[in-house]
Amino acid sequence: MRLKSKLLVFAVLFCNLLAFGQTTQGLDPLVQNVYNRHRISLNGYWHYVVDPLETGYYDYRRMPNPDGFFKDHQVDNVSTWKEYDFDTAPVMPVPGDWNTHSDNLFLYEGTIWFRQQFLYTPKSGNKVYLYFGASNYDTKIYLNGTKVGEHEGGYTPFNFDVTDIVKSGNNKLVVKVDNKRRADAVPTNNFDWFNYGGITRDVMLVELPQTFIQSYKVQLKKGTTNTLELKARMSAKTAGQTVTIEIPELKIKQTLTTDASGMASVEVKATPSLWSPESPKLYDVLVSSATDKVNDEIGFRTIETRGREIFLNGKQIFMKGISIHEEAAFRNGRIFSEDEDRTLLNWAKDLGCNYVRLAHYPHNEQMVRLAEKMGLLVWSEIPVYWTIHWEKDYVYANALNQLDEMIERDQNRANIFVWSIANETPHSDPRDKFLSSLAKYAREKDNTRLISMAMERKDKSKEILSINDNMSEYVDIISVNQYVGWYDGTNEKLDRVKWEVDYEKPLMISEFGGEAVFGHHGDVSQIWTEEYQAELYRKTLRMIDERMPYVSGISPWILKDFRSSRRLLPNVQDGFNRKGVISDRGDRKLAFYVLQEWFKKK
Ligand code: GCU
After folding, report:
1. In the predicted structure, residue 10 carries a pLDDT above the cut 80
2. What DSSP element (H or E) covers 34?
3. Mutate to test the pocket of ligand 1, among 557, 563, 566, 573 (most ligand atoms within 8 A of CB)
4. Averaged over 186-198, what is the pLDDT?
5. Strand, helix or coil at 252?
């Protein structure tokens, strides 16, 4: 390649990485298990300013304005020119989505500025981190007029060390949230769920010692039921720090010494009672150092595949699941409370599920922890959804960062059995390169869980359905979304089709379903009726029983009707995807009972 072309390629690569670098600048390594740390909630009613032209960020030549809204200047006399005022601006609850906060923001996609003030008294010797559970989608954070950092991605936590910026007395926190969809984002500008914008999960200050326990991982060593791997990472990357990990009920107390990276680990023999849906046993675990301590509740289990079956704790298990979006029942807004998590998980339990597919992005931390306590296995997924820009390095860096944040937060949750790296992505070499790298990274970071992704069919003929995906060699579980009876023919086709899937790996059906309006009844051949949806479930489940005996799990699409701006049919969809077995108002459709009956027999 000529020198000029090489320089051009280098320049493009550098700009790409610079672009992504801009959207994750200032991030500090994630503090794990913040809910068990010394924290000060910043949740509450925040003032907000709707800024569709980003006047608060750019000047009239569209250049970043150093004196933008993040300065939160006070108007101190009649001669001060300023065209925004947080003090007199309206307020909205944080966490929350702005779309369901007020009708005139329902379809708003753009920037909203948030401002919260808080009194703080620094404790000498402490570090202070500013932690966001999630904010959708592009977030820029300023404290007392100083840029703290940025984060791109709408569904994973992030934090910043603000020790040197927070001050004694009143502090002003200004946050720019932009939920504009972009073709080069993760997800792209094209997805089948509602683009809820805002600071959608908890915001808090986390007070930490100068040197603190950054993260830890306490799990059964892969492939064993009698060896625990105890790992801890200190915030200081120095050797010789002492860290103690205790599990009193197992009479384990191990004192470790960190290496030069601040990491310490050891293997110990133990035979814990294993976590399972039937017995979701959790142990108190205490991690402590000379200056810090944090406790957690951790379960131990093994998950593996043998041929076409999945084994939990050495016993074959059929994954009786349902897919779930993070949307509150009844209210139909982005979930931000544990009670709203509980409602959905109770519905999954009522169905007879032992597993929930948390689609298509990491749900909030409480959802995962609650599911763990309720005995529900979890499929956790990053929103690498549909037509991602596979060949842009900064897009890969974004997806990788979201994967890392997902695993970093939840690596101690026994109920997570799958890290899913994609959903319904079109076949191509750049896509295979992108996804196989993500799969490799996930395995290196956490080899105690399985890797999967929701694939699409690649049939052998109109009547012989199959999957033929290069990614099958990189995943532990082959998983497919199939919509025979809805997008592919009508219900009668389900009686005719055959499947030929030749992989010697477990096969899960990660999605099937059809839409129905609750209370709309008619003949089973009549689309949009509850009867049609129920018949689709009956025939699909019969197809699995009779012609797909090797299927090792299902998670039908979906538990509850959910908002989507793709769903426009008046008097039927009205902005909702109606594939729920439960309506957006909590009513159980006929298909709910068909699935419930089938699970009972499994
Ligand atoms: C796809 C996709 C879902 C979508 C569903 C549907 O399988 O994974 O996100 O909502 O189909 O079309 O209803």
Report:
1. no
2. none
3. 557
4. 98
5. strand
**What band does 25 get if pLDDT is binned at 50, 70 and 90?**
confident
Alpha carbon separation from 564 to 195, 199, 303, 561, 567 (Å, rounded)? 8, 20, 34, 9, 6
Q: Ligand 1, from 382, 424, 559, 560: best to mutate by most atoms within 8 Å of Cβ?
A: 424
pLDDT band at residue 22 using 50, 70 and 90 as cut-offs: very low
Q: For 330-348, what is the mean pLDDT?
A: 97
CA of 423 to the centre of ligand 1 (A): 9
Predicted TM-score (pTM) of this structure: 0.95
Q: What percent of the chain has pLDDT over 70?
A: 96
- Of all protein residues, whose CA lies closest to atom 3 belonging to ligand 1? 192
The minimum-distance atom of ligand 1 relative to the CA of 359 is: 9
Whether 54 lines ligand 1, by a CB cut-off of 6 Å, is no
* Distance from the alpha carbon of residue 192 to the mean position of ligand 1, in angstroms: 6
**pLDDT (tens digit, 9 = 90+) per residue, 77-104?**
677 788 999 999 999 999 999 999 999 9
**163: part of which helix (H) or strand (E)?**
none
The DSSP result for 388-444, as a single string, is --TT-HHHHHHHHHHHHHHHHHHTT-TTEEEEEEEESPPP-HHHHHHHHHHHHHHHH
Map out the domains of the chain with their CATH numbers.
31-208 (2.60.120.260), 224-299 (2.60.40.10), 305-601 (3.20.20.80)
Q: Which residue has the CA at smallest separation from atom 7 of ligand 1?
A: 481
Q: Is the CB of 410 under 6 A from ligand 1?
A: no
CA distance 237 to 225: 32
Which atom of ligand 1 lies closest to the CA of 562? Answer: 10
- The DSSP bridge partners found for residue 50 are 112
